[in-house]
TrEMBL record, chains A, B:
It comes from the Bacteria. InterPro entries: HTH_LacI, LacI/GalR-like_sensor, Lambda_DNA-bd_dom_sf, Peripla_BP_I. The keyword DNA-binding applies. SUPFAM superfamilies: lambda repressor-like DNA-binding domains, Periplasmic binding protein-like I. Pfam families: LacI, Peripla_BP_3. This is Transcriptional regulator, LacI family.
Length: 342, 342
DNA sequence: GCGGGTGGTCGAAGCGCTTCGACAATGGTG
DNA sequence: CACCATTGTCGAAGCGCTTCGACCACCCGC
């Protein structure tokens, strides 16, 4: 039996019903002043029976806090969709945990959109997904009168708060693992070429991490881009094995290509893991569904989203939190890696 | 050279700068009263130089319109992600076209979440994606004090505004096409079994449409659910061809399985389209990237999202629009269908 | 040339909430 | 026992905007 639903229940109705002042109701809700237990109970009861729900606009106006954050979607959809969704869900859930709601903006609203929602006090802060190395929204973010957190790193992250998986370490970690297993010829199959040319940070960072580790370990290693369709993957893989026949370990940083790679390798005479060890950088669910299951560095979208929100809330609350949060990559060994056979 | 950025520009600042009353500025912005061209120019100029952006909270409070709509994500992620994203983008873009922003809510906020955002006047209306046949959110929607539009149909759509592709017609249309090409044994490969048991409307409707058309055309036809992984698809397909060897036309309503089906059919001795015609119900981009390209009924996510917003805006503006909007399926013939060979 | 539109502008009253200062009523302290 | 902090509550002043009624010029028609 739901309460009657009058057209609009205001805080004044609650106050009257409970026999207290409007301000008292407000303080019960915000706990910014001490309220006696008896009064609190009474007010809470009135709120419940009347089905009072504070008016968001009025609250925002008076408190100068909208309790809403903006989430800006990626510029282009090169991003792996499942990761994107996970990230989104994590941000929304995280925000709700801090009593905030989430406004979404498509990237094509661009810098002006950011200004609009920020300057209209519609949102208290902004989370930008999938920032690119030279992203037109970044300068705007800097001069915005509201705090922001970036998921991903632009070329110059100074003055900004960024979160991401430490892809540099991730690339290196994969090499180290392969080297530890005795592999002396390794390769990185990365994102499609266009992703590098348009300057998406995580692709670059994985590559430099990979190459740095290759150099340090004094093994031979190459980093190739890789398209996403089966035919291109086949071509790329064939080329790779022809030009670098000593390759016995491959790192794949490309969710869409990973299935194809696993399927094609045996048909190119390389059984996994016996003849070829494969490590992916991808979400766990992708790694777990291939045969054999992939050893992988997971992309912890949930954690990234949660962190992004936490950082934004910290900025809203007070002194600036650390500028850069790099999550340490975790490598899970499954069945696609093995000691090098001699 | 951007204007100086004082801490907050209000409508009063604009009024003073332009030498008019606050209300005049408001009327320039809303055009709800006639304003002389001269004054308008002056006010607009002041707005531009001061970089005025109306405060969303104040506006919402005074006008009782937040200019925000809520978009509720699907309950479970059985939905094809690309479609979901397209839908989301279309809704956001559509909303912006009507000068509204979009708040996202994950489904696990549930009915209470809906009440919260609606009763707090945080949003003016609600769009719910991927409604299920018996959806706990539906009764809440009915008694909500704000208009809503559903994407998809619940079991009982009375009193609600719903939009969707006419999946019943889509299923029938595919059969008709195959029959017209001379096929007398057809099959529907649908969504995973769990999708039917949990009562997702579009899967059911496609099936009933398919079966009705089969009966009407007096051909033989079966409708099977179909899992999404390659192994299951192979099993299902093999079973199907064994138990119904006279099948020469297949309708696939399962984005994830469609690639596998196309790849597996030749290895089961059925070349497409020579031995087997295939029609998919899927987004165009999926249909276009297979070899051979798939004849398909497209799922017009953009159009659905646009319609949903348009309907919501209509409800906000005045008299209720049509309760049900069923988009007519369009079949595009590509290379996966052919006359039945005798 | 006078009454009645009508186009253009203003002032003020809210919208529903938060928050600040004020003020009883306590209770502990010297 | 007078004094001062505390604790709990209230009233009122905004927050920045929309909107309503009022008002003043006009211009038109008769």
């Amino acid at each position: 039996m739901t309460a009657k639903r009058p057209d609009l229940v205001t805080i004044a109705d609650v106050a009257q019903h409970a026999g207290v002042a409007v301000s008292t109701v407000s303080y019960v809700l915000s706990a910014k002043r001490a309220i006696s237990a008896a009064t609190r109970e009474r007010v809470l009861a009135s709120i419940a029976t009347l089905g009072f729900q504070p008016n968001a606009g009025a609250r925002a106006l008076a408190s100068r806090r909208a309790n809403v954050i903006a989430l800006v979607l990626p510029l282009r959809t090169g991003m792996h969709l499942p990761i994107l969704m996970q990230l989104m869900t994590a941000v929304v859930t995280g925000a709700r945990g801090h009593d905030h709601d989430v406004l979404i903006m498509t990237a094509d609203e661009g810098p002006d959109g950011l200004r609009r929602v920020a300057d209209s006090s519609m949102v208290d802060g902004v989370v930008v997904m999938d920032v690119e190395l030279s992203d037109p929204r970044v300068p705007v973010l800097r001069e915005l009168r509201r705090p922001s957190v970036l998921i991903g790193f632009p070329a110059d992250p100074s003055g900004l708060t960024c979160v991401d998986l430490d892809f540099h370490r991730a690339g290196a970690r994969c090499v180290e693992e392969l080297v530890a297993l005795g592999h002396r010829g390794v390769a990185l199959l990365g994102a499609p070429a266009v992703v590098y040319t348009r300057g998406t940070g995580f692709a670059h960072r994985t590559r430099t991490g990979f190459l740095a580790a290759v150099e340090k370990a004094e093994v031979s290693g190459v980093a190739w881009p890789c398209e996403e369709d089966q035919v291109s993957v086949a071509t790329t893989l064939r080329d790779l094995l022809r030009r670098h026949p000593n390759t016995t370990g491959i790192v794949v940083h490309n969710e869409a290509a990973v299935d194809h790679v696993m399927r094609l390798l045996p048909s190119l005479g390389r059984r996994v893991p016996r003849d070829m060890s494969v490590i992916a950088i991808c979400p766990d669910q992708v790694a777990e569904r291939t045969r054999p299951a992939l050893s992988s560095v997971s992309i912890p979208a949930d954690e990234i989203g949660k962190q992004a929100v936490a950082l934004l809330m910290a900025k809203l609350a007070g002194p600036p939190p650390p500028a850069a949060t790099l999550l340490t990559p975790v490598l899970t060994v499954r069945s696609s890696t093995d000691r090098r056979q001699r």
